[in-house]
Every structure is written in structure tokens, then in C-alpha cells.
Amino acid sequence: MKPLLVATSLSMGERLAPLDLSLSAGTLTAAIGPNGSGKTSLLRSLARIDRPGGAVSIMDEDLDSVPPARRPALLGFLPAAREMIWPIAVRDLVGLGLAQPDERRVADLLRELELDELADRPADRLSTGERARALLARALAPRPAVLLLDEPLSNLDPYWVVTILQLLRDAAEAGAAVLLSLHDLHLLDTFDRVLMLNAGQLVEDGPPKQILHGPSLADTFRVEASGPRWRLRRA
Ligand SMILES: Nc1ncnc2c1ncn2[C@@H]1O[C@H](COP(=O)(O)OP(=O)(O)OP(=O)(O)O)[C@@H](O)[C@H]1O
């Protein structure tokens, strides 16, 4: 099947070495790698933020030239930064993701993410995890073809980690391609595909079992499995 997203010669100066990448409908992909390895740079270059090189198309539409009103249907992006500058109400924040107002969609997401009671609260007065859920709801609102999410599971308690992973699986089953970055390697078996980055290079691309049990994981992360825990890799 033809991929939903096709990126060619994607790059971001010294932060990300040139790479080609495609993402298929119905798939959940995790980008992993040590701090500073290029996960955020990969996601931002795919979303065409920070003046990246190369080209990205979604459903054959070049992201650099789609009209702004078309973009929400193609791409949902969750940045790593969760700070809110404006005291915008949670309900309005979620609605910001939509090209057309849709009160029903906003209400459904507020309920699904248990934000109903916070709907009228300014988003800068939420806890970090509540704000993460509100920002994720904004990204999900237009049901974009591709979701690019920078550490959507950080700051979430276990209930919300499991719930959000299920929501993202539902989005994939409805036809989306989902790519997110994460640090918790114990969650990898939930994914269809794993991209492993190291020093701005894509060093592995494959199913989770292959990456988790492959030789480059310990070299990349400088840790190795020791029962259910990680320990520093032996020299
Ligand atoms: N705005 C920037 N300008 C220049 N270099 C940057 C910028 N942001 C990040 N970098 C550098 O680019 C490299 C990749 O950073 P990036 O944020 O993509 O890594 P990451 O894998 O997302 O890291 P983390 O796990 O710490 O969030 C790092 O060497 C970082 O210092």
C-alpha cells in the first residue's frame, strides 16, 4: 500500500543527517534514542518547523506548499514544550486544532480525556499532565492523516499512559499514521515499528523485537537489560 507520508532527503543542519522515511496508514511508530540524538529534530523536520531540508508530502500533498487551512487535515503536531503563554480556556485550546468550529468533536475529546471539569479553566492553570492531555486533544481534534507527537507520554501517570496509547492505536486503526518519540523502552512492544536515532543519524528501523534484542541498543543507549531493569553497559 502506498505510504501516507513520504519524506525525502529530510535533514536539519547538524541536528539531523539526511534521511528518507515513509509512514504507512494504520501504523504506530516510536522514535527512540538518547538525549540529544535527534528525535525532536526528526519530528520537527517532518512537521516542517525550524527550516529543515528535504521535502515531506502527505497523501501526495507537499507540506511546504499546502494552504494553511488544509494542514490540520493532513498533520497533527504535538511539540515537546508544554508551556502555555496565553490564559486560553481548555475548551478553546482543543478547538484551536480544527479548521472549522466543531463543538461536538471538542466535547467528545474533553470527555474522552477527562477534561470536562477543566474545560473553562485557563490552560496555564493546569497541572503538567492535564496540560499534556489538553494539548494532545488539540492535536487529535481534526483527525489528521498523520500524527507527529513529541514525547506525548511524558508527565503522564500509568492510567493515562495506557489510555493515550490506546487512543493512538484507535487513531491508527481508523487509518492514521502515528509517529511519537519516547524514552520508556518498556513500552516498545506496543508499537509496530521503531526508529532508533543516535547522534543525529537513523541507526535502526524495524519491529520492536528486532531493535530491543539487537546489538545496537546497548551501544546506542549505553545500558543493557538486567531482568526487568536497565544497568549501565559493561565496558
Ligand atoms: N534549536 C536548536 N539549535 C541548535 N541545535 C539544537 C537545537 N535544538 C536542539 N539542538 C541540538 O540538536 C541535537 C538533537 O537535539 P534533539 O532535541 O533533536 O534531540 P532529542 O533526541 O529530541 O533529545 P531529548 O531526548 O533530550 O529530548 C542535539 O545535539 C541538540 O543539542
UniProtKB/TrEMBL annotation:
Keyword Secreted: no
Record Pfam families: ABC_tran
Sequence ranges assigned to domain ABC transporter in this UniProt record: 1-224
Entry annotated with the keyword Transport: yes
InterPro entries documented for this protein: AAA+_ATPase (IPR003593), ABC_transporter-like_ATP-bd (IPR003439), P-loop_NTPase (IPR027417)
Keyword annotations: ATP-binding, Nucleotide-binding, Translocase, Transport
An example molecular function term from Gene Ontology annotations: ATP binding
Function summary: Part of the ABC transporter complex HmuTUV involved in hemin import. Responsible for energy coupling to the transport system.
Entries under PANTHER family matching the protein: HEMIN IMPORT ATP-BINDING PROTEIN HMUV
Name of the protein described by the UniProt record: ABC transporter ATP-binding protein
Organism: Sphingomonas arvum
